[in-house]
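Good morning,

Both structures are done.
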Amino acid sequence: MKTFSLRARLTLLLALAVLVALGGAAKIVDWRADTEMQQRFDASLLARAQSLAALTQVEDGKIVVNAGNVAAATFPGNANASRYDLRCDDAVIARTFEAPPLITAGAEPVFADAQLPDGRTLRVIALRFTPMIEGHQAATQGAPTCTLRYALDRGPLDDLLDTLDFILLGSLLGACVLVILVTPWLVRRGLRPISVLDRAMAGIGPDAPGGRLPASDTTELVPLVARFNEVLARMDDGLARERQFASGLAHEFRTRLAELRTLVDVETRYPSGRGIHGLLQEIGSIGAELEATVTALLQLTRIQSGLETTRPESVPLAPLLTRVCVRHQDAARARGVHIETDLACGPAFAIQTDPALLEIVLDNLFGNAVAYAPSDGVAVLRADRQGIEVRNAAPELHPEDLAHFGKRFWRKEAQGAGHAGLGLALAGAAASALKMTLSFELIGGVLRATVCWDPDAVPQIARASSEPRGRAE
């Protein structure tokens, strides 16, 4: 993949932004300066022309300039700096050696630029006025109409405007060069928090669980660091679940395979004389235990990782409890355990929950109760409007053993075929996914497991009154 430098891209973009912004500003400044200086130059040109027009008067019916004879009249200025041409009724009153270019005068002063053969540029004004008659303060009717064309060399103005353009262009280019030179250093300092995160990321990996990015004081990086740490936390949880699954599976497989190998070795070296049917049945029992362990581990991992999502629906409790009891009826009969059910909420009572996950909870709790209850004991399954309770006698349990409930592969003692110590862990994970509370109590040698749901979060669908208790074995 073709890569690019973030530093170079930011430098180019900033230089382009400065060029556009300062270029636009310089263009506006240049336009305003040209307009303002042109207006001042025209104002000075108009003032000079008006001062010359004010010297023109009518005396004894003749037009004179500066109270003298027309032929002897002299005007200020010289041929190199200014030019003028004064005409009254198409008669030349006064003019310089080089007359200004012809332009048409109007009611208002008219300004125009003219190019001389030698390349110089003149600024010309054409002014039409009526001279005053001697002894009068203003022009009177009957006085002749005069036209004055006055021109100034605008070379100094053009030179000043060119100098201003050069200064603005030089400032613009200098600013761009400065931005190009300084921006990489500024960008490097600005991206320093990313470099810190880069060094922190180098030490994070599967071999360093629990590694997290350090908190950043940069506003833009705070959400990025938080999201990345959340991803790392989920990855750590996933890796922990996979490692726990693998270690648990290896432990159980090693135990069961050792049993299978021992059985084969013993029968090979010291034949017991049992029939092939009995041997295959024992081997099949070991395989069933392995299959049950793998199934429970996979289901527990899916629930804890969130892959097993809940699908709430209205679940009547009575049919569910009946299925659970029937499923463990044979195991209870084999051990001489009596099953009692107590439906205190009524047969029509239902809750809004996921039936599959709730059945996992009840099946594992009640299965443990049947498997670990003493022979000729009782396993009780009771339900009311607040929750479900499973009870069985547990004379070998101690209060401190309750702290180990829910841990994978923990067993008080190795009894009961197919029990790998995963039942309570699986029930706890499923109850947590359903947002239910699973608790254990040991009172007077009787273990009681209680599953409670929130009445607001799990609304009741059927509100039938409680029926008398029923008992089934």
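Second structure follows.
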Amino acid sequence: MARPRIAILDDYQRQALASADWQAVRARGDITVFDHHLQEDEAARILADFEVLCTMRERMALPRSLLQRLRKLRFIAVTGPHHRTLDLDAAAELGITVSCTPRVAAGQFATAELAWGLILALLRHIPAEAQNMREGGWQRTMGHALAGRCLGLLGLGRLGGYMAPIARAFNMNVIAWSQNLTEEAARSAGALRVDKDVLFSESDIISVHLVLSERTRHIVGRRELALMKAGSYLVNTSRGGLIDKEALIEALHAGAIAGAALDTFDVEPLPDDDPLRRIPNVLLTPHLGYTVKETFQGFYEATVENIIAFFDGSPIRVLRNSP
């Protein structure tokens, strides 16, 4: 009998096999690692003979249209507690089992840590000055201190909540808004709840920490960007679709805001010819928020457990849509 084929998808940094002990999986099947992103038609062709797919977060979308073309697929191991671009209903109808992994405690602050790295890099012009040093130059820019400035948190949930105490440590004022945020919840997180317009008009730095949904798509649009101060900054480590990209490009070109730092994008990997790559007052990072060794180790160790449990006929951490 042919051994099952297992695909590890979107392993850009080639960290999957080094992050866990895959020996038990290798004993049961053949593993292939894909270190580049597969578009849907390419994925349908290349993955046609695979029975198991291992994803890294939501790098690979798995809509019904793709799942229907993967006739041998029996199991999908996703990392994290959900996968918003995987059609779970289609998977269930097609007899494909989906298992998830728990959140990794060691990496739970990673996205907030990156957000602060981006904020400091923006206000102190760290990338430009570091490049100047490599080229033999010296001081060329003038940065801004964080103390006394106002941090606006667009979203104060689990990830946004990590931002407030760090801002306080920098002696910043912290305000926050989201559709369901209450004054009490904001106060307990160390922030002041304000109206949405106040958040955009009074913040020196706005950091976005919302879940992408139809209600929040393009929640930062032309109107919101027009409310921002000319010297303010926008930081997004959540999802690209939260910001109207065209409106942001217009605002940056016009000098309506001082700059932006973006770690997430509508299309990932970001195309080489994307106009964001050519705007000087934009700091871009390739979705680094959760990509730390601690997170990958926890994700892939649990992935190995999930695959072995499936092979043994007793799948664990099965992911299903709520009825």
